[in-house]
Amino acid sequence: MKIIIILLIFLFSCNNQDNNKFIILSKASDSYIKWISDEKTIILDAYTIKNTDSLLSLADGIILTGGEDINPLEYNDTSNIKLCGPINYKRDTLERKLFEYAFKNKIPLIGVCRGMQMMNVATGGTLYGDIPSEIGNEVIHRFNGEVNHEIVLCDTSSLIFSSKKDTIVVNSFHHQGLKKISPFLRVIARAFDGVPEAVVMDKDLHPYMIAVQFHPERLGKENQIYQTIKSSFHKQLRINRHKRNF
């Protein structure tokens, strides 16, 4: 479980490429690292590394993590600008590049919160600028910090949920959400106000792209969603590595 600079990664990977999985986080934090790591994982923080092209050449998997509001101009919406917090232009550009590389090269990708929104925006979707003012407060998605609420499964996907229940309690810390859904994505779970809470990419377009609006990395290692998403992601990393070796 480690974040190391790109030079050391190159040196290390020369002798260990077959044994280690390289996972790129768009912006790392301890909770993401602890969640997605295993004994043969090397975590790279894309936000701190300048040579993105060299970084991407190592990628076995990519995770677009949570964070600031996406610039509304990324989805051609000027009205949402006044509803957003401070815009991180560097991150918008970086995460589009990570997504496009993963899509083109069939690299497994998870989107979390902002990452789910970027996945939608990058494939032609749009966002609600502010859920309370546009949809209302039937469901509280954040209130002075993280909250919990139920979501309902509206399609099946064992990549995220292995429960047979129709509803699941998740954590939540966002004020924006998916509005116009990209034609590339399928919504598999929603909050009770209709806001999408989980999506998967059409498998005809990509073998493994999934995203959730909540934060599995903070649900705890005993939580089923925490375990299921991590397990399905690492399974796909192994499949991809096996394909490359033959």
Question: What key attributes describe this structure?
Answer:
246 residues, 7 helices, alpha/beta, two-stranded antiparallel sheet, Rossmann fold, single chain, 9-stranded mixed beta sheet
How would you explain this protein's 3D organization?
Helices cover 30% and strands 21% of the residues. It has seven helices and eleven strands. The chain has helices at 6-16, 30-36, 52-56, 89-105, 114-122, 131-134, 224-244; strands at residues 21-25, 41-45, 61-64, 109-112, 127-128, 147-153, 167-172, 177-178, 185-191, 196-201, 209-212. The strands form two sheets. A nine-stranded mixed sheet has the order 2-1-3-4-11-10-9-6-7, with helices on both faces. The chain has a two-stranded antiparallel sheet with strand order 5-8. Helix 4 packs across helix 5.
Level of helix content? 25-40%
- Mean pLDDT reading: 90
The structural domain count equals 1
CATH class: Alpha Beta
**SS-based class:** alpha/beta
Strand segment count: 11
At the fold tier of CATH, the topology name is Rossmann fold
Instruction: Report the C-alpha radius of gyration, rounded.
Output: 17 Å
Order of helices and strands: HEHEHEHEHEHEEEEEEH
Shape: globular
Strand percentage: 15-25%
The helix count comes to 7
Poorly predicted regions are 1-11
Largest beta sheet: what is the strand line-up? 2-1-3-4-11-10-9-6-7
Instruction: Give the biggest beta sheet.
Output: 9 strands, mixed
CATH architectural category: 3-Layer(aba) Sandwich
The CATH superfamily bears the name Class I glutamine amidotransferase (GATase) domain
Measure the end-to-end span: 28 Å
